[in-house]
Design brief:
The protein is mainly alpha-helical and 234 residues long. It has a single domain, classed as Rhomboid-like (Rhomboid-like fold, Up-down Bundle), CATH 1.20.1540. Helix content is 68%, strand content 0%. The chain contains eleven helices and no strands. α7 crosses α11. The longest helix is centred in the middle third of the chain and has 26 residues.
């Protein structure tokens, strides 16, 4: 009797009433995969820097004009400017990305991370170029090369905030106009961006990534349909 009960107990941890195998579907392996990519890319940066800083920058640093080294639009998302930068983004990825990874598929998670990282990086280059030299704000903005996963990490944070059960519950009870929800998201993105600002920080990338994540979370673009499916466990 006791052996049978223990067997049933173990089985219940791996699946729910709908037959959903959480040991595989709830895997956080996309996080591990991204961490491995971070380390491999960082090692490649160090090796190419030995050849020349220009070689490393040409492979991993996003800079203007974007058409000169177009591959950096992708590679810059996974590159980092130093050990501290790598560690801080890795820790943030684990904290904010783990619940999102458990609520969606591996392909959707990786696609979301890459797309939001690309959008954030391009926005940093474009918007800093627009505001640089403008009256009042131009002195605070400088168009500079950019690299790092923080834009995508901020998108994960935004998605987590906008798509969790509490947010979804409030949205179902409180009927607000779409324009007002967008306005609230923009204000929240500005507040979070300013709170995390500092010298050498890509503020436009943080702002864009967080805002895109909020909007994506509101639309639940990573949601996997089905009763008891992953999308309901955020």
């Amino acid at each position: 009797m006791s052996r049978r009960s223990r067997s049933q107990s173990v089985t219940s941890l791996g699946s729910d009433a709908s037959g959903d195998d959480r040991s595989t579907e709830g895997s956080s392996s996309p996080i591990v995969e991204l961490l491995i990519v971070f380390v491999v890319v960082f090692a490649a940066q160090q090796l190419t820097a030995i050849i020349g800083i220009g070689v490393m920058a040409g492979l991993f640093v996003l800079a203007t004009p974007l058409t000169t080294n177009p591959w950096t639009i992708v590679t810059s998302v996974y590159a980092h400017g130093g050990i501290g930068h790598l560690v801080s983004n890795s820790l943030a990825l684990i904290v904010f990305g783990w619940p999102v990874a458990r609520a969606t598929t591996r392909l959707r998670f990786h696609t979301f991370f890459l797309v939001t990282g690309v959008i954030a990086g391009i926005s940093q280059i474009v918007l800093s170029g627009v505001f640089e030299g403008m009256p009042l704000v131009g002195g605070w903005v400088e168009q500079a090369p950019v690299l790092g996963a923080s834009g995508a990490v901020f998108a994960l944070l935004g998605y987590l905030i906008a798509s969790n059960r509490l947010s979804a519950g409030l949205a179902s009870f409180i009927d607000v106009p779409q324009w007002f929800a967008v306005l609230v998201f923009v204000g929240l993105a500005i507040a979070v961006t300013l709170a995390t600002g500092g010298p050498g920080i890509a503020l436009f990338a943080h702002f864009t990534g967080f805002l895109v994540g909020l909007l994506a979370g509101r639309l639940r673009v990573l949601h996997v349909g089905g009763s008891g499916g992953r999308g309901s466990r955020l």
